[in-house]
Write a structure and sequence with these properties.
Elements: H1 6-12, E1 17-23, E2 29-39, E3 45-51, H2 56-65, E4 67-73, E5 80-91, H3 95-114, H4 119-122, E6 130-142, E7 151-152
Length: 153
């Protein structure tokens, strides 16, 4: 089983843009924006939150086949990482999760402003209801643009 190291944890938990992707039995893809990714202490699982209004297909997919891919990109440097794995839990956020999600959204908004994307627009990218997805990390990929993009880590 793979473990997320401190370097990858710092990217995942810093305030990157996050995209969550799944697929259904017919291999049709689904994707939504993610929020508040948090690596477990042991580095083996990651929680990510998706907007409930947009999550119906994502939740159905992971309940059907458990496959999930999550993409993280630092909007100011374009350093990017993709994690693939198996979703092991779908649920409502716990009370302490909201502080984590809000912290990520604030950091994401601030990062957007550094590239002249107005925070007032960034704040319209999320819903006030989320679903928590917990997944076991099975694969890591460097997705930073350049000659190493797609390389397994």
């Amino acid at each position: 089983m793979l473990v997320v190291d401190e370097d990858l944890r710092s990217l995942i938990e810093s305030g990157p843009a996050i995209s969550v992707g799944t697929r259904n039995a017919a291999m049709a893809p689904h994707a939504v924006r993610g929020w508040g990714a948090r690596v477990a202490e042991d580095g083996r699982t990651v929680d990510v939150f998706v907007d409930r209004p947009a999550a119906e297909d994502i939740v159905a997919d992971v309940r059907d086949n458990a496959r999930i891919a999550v993409f993280f990109v630092d909007v100011s440097t374009l350093r990017a990482l993709q994690l693939k794995g198996r979703c092991v839990e779908v649920g409502d956020p716990q009370p302490d999760d909201w502080a984590w999600v809000d912290k990520h959204r604030a950091a994401f908004t601030e990062a957007c402003e550094t590239i002249l994307f107005p925070g007032s627009i960034a704040r319209h990218l999320w819903a006030m209801q989320v679903v928590r997805l917990r997944f076991v990390v099975e694969e890591f990929y460097d997705q930073t643009p350049g000659p190493g993009a797609g390389k397994a880590l």
